[in-house]
Design brief:
Layout: E1 3-12, E2 15-24, E3 35-41, E4 48-51, H1 53-61, E5 65-66, H2 68-77, H3 79-91, H4 96-181
Parallel strand pairs: 1-5
Antiparallel strand pairs: 1-2, 2-3, 3-4
Length: 182
C-alpha cells in the first residue's frame, strides 16, 4: 500500500484551508485518511501552519511519501531537516546533541525570519494608513480652500449688488428730486 502525506481541502469556495493527512494514495482527495497531522491555512499572511512534527517524522521514517506542496510545508516546518539530521546520527556522522543543536539553531533563525516578516507587514499597514490620512487631509484642505474662495466670491458679488442697488436707489432719488424741482 502506497501511503502519501497530502492536503485534504476544506472551507468554502475561494477561501479554502487544508488538513495535512496521511492517506492511502488510492483514496479520494477529501476521503478516507489514516491520520491527521495538522492543518494549513494559506488565507492568512504569513500562512498559518499547525503540524505535529513528531508524527510527520515518524511517517516519513516508515516510508510515507509527501506530495510537492506537503514537502514544502514539511521543509518549512523543519521536519525534512530533522529527518536528514537523524540520518546523519544513524550513520555516525553526528551525535544526537550536535543534531539537536543544529536543528535548534535553524529553528531560531526561521522564527526570527517569521517575526521580521510579521513586523514588516504591520509596519507597511501603518505606513499605508499614514499615507491615506495625509492624502485625505490634503483633499480636505483643498476643499476648504475652494469653499472659502467660493464664499469670498459670493460675498463680493453680494457687496457689488448692494452697491449697485444703493447707487440705483440714489440715482432714482436724485431723479425724483430733479423732477420735483422742475
Amino acid at each position: 500500500m502506497a501511503v502519501k502525506i497530502r492536503l485534504q481541502r476544506h472551507g468554502k469556495k475561494n477561501f479554502a484551508f487544508f488538513h495535512i493527512v496521511v492517506a492511502d494514495s488510492r483514496a479520494p482527495r477529501d476521503g478516507r485518511f489514516i491520520e491527521q497531522l495538522g492543518s494549513y491555512n494559506p488565507n492568512t499572511n504569513p500562512a498559518t501552519i499547525i503540524l505535529d512534527g513528531e508524527r510527520a517524522l515518524a511517517w516519513l521514517n516508515v516510508g510515507a511519501q509527501p506530495t510537492l506542496v506537503t514537502r514544502r510545508i514539511l521543509s518549512y516546518e523543519g521536519v525534512l531537516l530533522r529527518k536528514h539530521l537523524q540520518g546523519g546520527v544513524a550513520k555516525g556522522a553526528l551525535t544526537q546533541e550536535q543534531a539537536d543543536q543544529k536543528w535548534n539553531e535553524w529553528k531560531a533563525q526561521r522564527d526570527s525570519k517569521i517575526k521580521a516578516k510579521k513586523e514588516g507587514i504591520v509596519k507597511d499597514a501603518a505606513e499605508k494608513v499614514k499615507a491615506a490620512v495625509a492624502a485625505e487631509k490634503k483633499v480636505n484642505e483643498e476643499r476648504a480652500a475652494a469653499i472659502a474662495k467660493k464664499a469670498e466670491e459670493l460675498a463680493e458679488a453680494q457687496r457689488k449688488a448692494a452697491e449697485e442697488a444703493a447707487a440705483a436707489k440714489a440715482a432714482e432719488e436724485a431723479g425724483e428730486a430733479a423732477e420735483q424741482e422742475a
